[in-house]
Fold this sequence. Notes:
This protein is mainly alpha-helical. The chain has a single domain, classed as Hypothetical protein af1432, CATH 1.10.3210. The chain is 57% helix and 4% strand. The strands form two sheets. Strands 1-2 form a two-stranded antiparallel sheet. A hairpin with a 6-residue loop joins β3 and β4. α1 runs parallel beside α3, α2 (31-44) packs antiparallel against α3 and α4 (76-83) crosses α5.
Amino acid sequence: xxxxxxxxxxxxxxxxxxxxxxxxxxxxxxxxxxxxxxxxxxxxxxxxxxxxxxxxxxxxxxxxxxxxxxxxxxxxxxxxxxxxxxxxxxxxxxxxxxxxxxxxxxxxxxxxxxxxxxxxxxxxxxxxxxxxxxxxxxxxxxxxxxxxxxxxxxxxxxxxxxxxxxxxxxxxxxxxxxxxxxxxxxxxx
Length: 189
């Protein structure tokens, strides 16, 4: 694995290029443009280098909302060698989220971090993630969905479900990510 954030980022971009992310169709364009757009939002909103690298690679195993994938789960060591084990572990965590189980818990006012049950959509296993993992997950979700909203033909203002989701999950997010999403989505204060 290349060391240093710039080297790791370059290695991830080379990996994505080698796996044709630039020609892989995505909702409003190609996958590579989406991934770079998500990374840009993470950086603009003050996310860590780890979160920015994870943003670049977040669709490696597909997501609950985007089935196409770059690697099979059996090939997790490949991404780990390229991006680092810390990034790969978070990319897997993000990709493995069973949104039908996790999102309602994040939106429910009664859910406390110690009681949140994260279901892995690949294995069906459940765990209780750390508060930091939950925040990183929500932050990346905001950046991922907001990038799509910004790229959509009707513009971000039409993504009212996302504004509602952000309002309901604000307590889990980093303040700068909530603020960034609110501005991008044109949410009232």
